[in-house]
Amino acid sequence: MAKIGITCYPTVGGSGVIATELGKLLAEQGHKIHFITSQVPFRLNRVYPNIFYHEVEVSNYPVFQHPPYDLSLANKMAEVIDREELDILHVHYAMPHAVLAILAKQMCNRDVKIVTTLHGTDITVLGIDSTLKRMIRFGIEQSDRVTAVSHSLVEQTREQLDTSKDIDVIYNFVDEREYYRIQTPTLKEEYGIKEHEKVIIHISNFRKVKRVDDVIRVFAEIVEKIPSKLVLVGDGPEYSNCYHLVKKLELEDHVLFLGKQENVSELLAISDLKLLLSEKESFGLVLLEAMSCGVPCIGTNIGGIPEVIQHGVTGYIGELGDVTGISRLAVELLSDEVKVKQFSKDAESLVHEKFASRAIVEQYEQLYDQVMGHE
Ligand code: GMT
């Protein structure tokens, strides 16, 4: 069994979710897991006997113009590597975690192996920022092993960082014990949604890249043909713009703004269709969460989304920004009960086959074994 350190962004966000869920499942397999983060990861919501949490403390010495969080993290990583005799330090999100892990490795007294997982915006946005690019590439190239959450992200990393480093694709997963089709017989009514109305859901952090305005415009065309409600879950910089757009399109009675929600599987249980119309998306973990709950999805032909949705089987892939084309696909699907049932069944099966949590965790375990020289 390995002793594994995990660093991630502990707040809401797909990379933090995956890092935390991976830590939990690895701990269930008997590994010792040490989270090294600025806060307790938000999904670490109960006591696990072989999971430990090491908080990064940042010095506030008045001479510093900016608190040196990054350096304090590297210092903490080195301290935990030595004290807990870590075999592996697995960092999620390259910027700045990969380069800090390399620094920590140089500061400690063990031949700890560094594994870096790329999640998306660390490459697709920050990787093209000239103030960060060289540092991100260095962190990736110096890591012992690098994984990415989709083939598309591997290609983008190669192109944007101009690196030939080997990158393994290990897809994301969900804990199927949490994401399944639960029975919520009264929830629809409690939200004031009529039994015959279809529910279309979008979940995101409402950043510009998520194109939530496209979701609203697509819904505006759907609701003209099919009695339905749009449920918007999450919060972020575009939230108030979305609010205004809903008002402008006179959709106030049809759109529910729910803000951040914890028990998303209950909301997915009342949903008929999920929309993710982003312009950048290395994977789209929310699609997997929906599919695991039997909700068909429509996504854009962007990044890793076509690796997650099987077009015509578990949902549809539309062109970025093609509001009319996407709403046509949605209306066609929602008008065909038999098709919705089949897509829903196939979505669940796909999660259990291609993205099964046990198989994905095994891929990480195999990679750890290889990097530790056990294979
Ligand atoms: O964009 C987000 O929603 C947050 C971001 C993150 O870093 O947590 O998500 C990225 O990582 C997720 C987990 O691997 C992926 O499912 C998301 O597609 C990816 N986001 C982007 O590529 C924009």
UniProtKB/TrEMBL annotation:
SUPFAM superfamilies (UniProt xref): UDP-Glycosyltransferase/glycogen phosphorylase
InterPro entries: Glyco_trans_1, Glyco_trans_4-like_N, Glycosyltransferase_grp1, Thiol_BshA
Domain of life, source organism: Bacteria
Chain ranges of the Glycosyl transferase family domain: 185-348
GO biological process terms held by the UniProt record: bacillithiol biosynthetic process
Domain called Glycosyltransferase subfamily 4-like N-terminal: residue spans: 12-176
Entries under Pfam families matching the protein: Glyco_transf_4, Glycos_transf_1
Alphabetical UniProt keywords: Transferase
Record GO terms (molecular function): glycosyltransferase activity
Transmembrane segments: none
PANTHER family referenced in this protein's UniProt entry, alphabetically: SULFOQUINOVOSYL TRANSFERASE SQD2
Protein name in UniProt: Glycosyl transferase
